[in-house]
Write a structure and sequence with these properties.
Blueprint lengths: L1 H28 L28 E5 L3 H18 L4 E6 L4 E6 L6 H16 L3 H7 L23 E6 L2 E9 L3 H16 L9 E7 L1
Antiparallel strand pairs: 1-6, 2-3, 2-5, 4-5
Length: 211
């Protein structure tokens, strides 16, 4: 056992000596690149400008939070009560992912999917769903858009974006009544956020996107 260890250490020592000799030989014989040190370890950020070295290439994404969504749903429910209609309302974040959803007692089962997809559609195209509906009529520029994204696009009115400081931070979708009522319920949800001071919202929720 001791002999095997001794032979291994000897082999390792010889390999190290050979690598050092190769390094010295490269340094003394390389006449084409005299300013480049031989056997230099190159850091991954050496190619970056000096002011960028060591800095993460990230950016924070502003988005709605769960607290925001709860406030929006509460406002939407209050508006729905004015119409005496049980509503389905969905809120998605800046990435189009569902944050919160409410189905009031006896709300139409078929409207569950519509409410969620109205919110998602709004985020997919950053447009109100009633606006998309106008552009999707036969002969209009976006005719057939409702067949995109595996048919998950819903262009009935009732999907609205939530915008703060020029950035879309989420969306809301409402479904159960007429188009006008759906829009009114969704607008009530958006207005609940619009009335809040900007610094009271956790818009930068710690999410980071690498470039």
């Amino acid at each position: 056992m001791a002999c095997r260890i001794s032979r291994a250490l000897t082999a390792f020592s010889v390999r190290c000596q050979n690598e050092m000799l190769a390094c010295i030989q490269f340094k003394t014989t390389d006449t084409h690149r005299p300013n480049v040190p031989a056997c230099r370890a190159v850091r991954s950020d050496d190619a970056l400008p000096s002011e960028s070295k060591g800095r993460k290439m990230t950016r924070l994404i502003a988005t709605l939070t769960l607290d925001d969504a709860k406030l929006m749903l509460s406002a939407a429910e209050a508006k729905a009560a004015e119409f005496s209609i049980a509503y389905n309302v969905a809120v998605v974040d800046a990435g189009g992912h569902l944050i919160a959803f409410v189905r009031q007692d006896d709300a139409l089962i078929g409207s569950i999917d519509l409410a969620i997809k109205k919110a998602v559609t709004t985020r997919l195209f950053d447009k109100k769903t009633d606006y998309l509906a106008k552009l999707a009529q036969p002969g209009a520029p976006l005719f057939g858009i409702d067949q995109s994204n595996d048919g998950n696009v819903v262009i009935f009115g009732g999907g609205l974006p939530v915008i703060r400081d020029g950035r879309l931070i989420g969306a809301v979708g409402a479904s159960a009544g007429s188009v006008e009522q759906d829009i009114a319920v969704a607008q009530a949800a958006v207005s609940a956020i619009d009335l809040m001071p900007a610094d009271s919202q956790l818009l930068t929720s710690g999410k980071e996107q690498r470039r």
